[in-house]
Structure formats: structure tokens, C-alpha cells
Specification:
This protein has five helices and no strands. The N and C termini lie far apart (about 45 Å).
Length: about 140
């Protein structure tokens, strides 16, 4: 499976896009190493922890940005972030209880992490970026 940060995932907010690219790269490296069989259980857990830590850092930065612009959907967005953090914790438990990254685990990661993050960026995060753009450029949006 190939997961790549593409223009389709850009929000036009430099900070957010840079962090999304890093997050996508970490997720892609994790999935690729699990699929290729180069991961043992300990290495997979460490790599997943590394990915989870960056995710939490990124979510915190995004939420600070939303607070700074008084984004009206902050609570809903924060709720989605918390759901994802719980999902990652459940996947970490699944990995710890197994012999290592099984095919079933990799499929769950694709479904619960890869699909989620792509959808989240294209919808929720893009909405934040559009809101900021409207705030920064009222001359283009006040005609509505």
C-alpha cells in the first residue's frame, strides 16, 4: 500500500500542511514496514508510539490554531481528534496482545488510521483552512 502526501491533501495552511506531510510519512513508513515483514513486535510498538506521539502533537497544534481564530466547530473537531487517539490506543493494545504486526492488524491500521486521516484532512481540516482564509481575506467573502 502506498500512502503519499499529495496536493489533494493540501489545505493551503503552511503549518498544517507541513505537519500533515510529516504525519502521512510516519503512517506510511509504519504500514510499509509492517507489510514487508521487517517489523518485530518491539520495533512495531516503538514505531507506533512514535507515530502516536506526533499525532497528539499535531492535534494540539491544530486545536491551538482553531482557538486563535475562534473556529466555530472547534469542539466537534476536538472530539474527532479524541476519537482517533482512542482508536490508536486500541490498535496499540491489539499489537501488544499479538505476536507482532499480523495481517489483521495491518488491515485495521489501514481502515482505522489511513482511511480516517485521509478523510479527516480532506473534510475537517480543509474546513478549518477555508475558515481561516475567509477570515484573512474578508474582501473576497463578504459579498455572501
Amino acid at each position: 500500500m502506498e500512502l503519499v502526501f499529495t496536493d489533494e491533501l493540501r489545505t493551503k495552511n503552511e503549518l498544517v500542511d507541513t505537519q500533515h506531510e510529516e504525519l502521512i510519512n510516519r503512517i506510511a513508513a509504519f504500514v510499509q514496514s509492517c507489510e514487508s515483514g521487517e517489523q518485530n513486535k518491539v520495533k512495531a510498538i516503538k514505531m507506533m508510539d512514535y507515530m502516536a506521539e506526533y499525532t497528539e502533537f499535531h492535534f494540539g497544534e491544530e486545536e491551538k490554531l482553531m482557538e486563535s481564530v475562534s473556529y466555530p466547530e472547534l469542539a466537534k473537531h476536538r472530539e474527532k481528534h479524541q476519537e482517533f487517539i482512542k482508536t490508536v490506543a486500541a490498535l496499540e493494545n491489539m499489537l501488544e496482545e499479538s505476536e507482532g504486526p499480523t495481517d489483521a492488524f495491518v488491515e485495521k491500521v489501514k481502515e482505522k488510521v489511513v482511511d480516517w486521516i485521509l478523510y479527516h484532512i480532506k473534510t475537517f481540516d480543509r474546513s478549518v483552512a477555508e475558515y481561516i482564509m475567509m477570515q484573512d481575506n474578508p474582501q473576497y467573502y463578504n459579498w455572501i
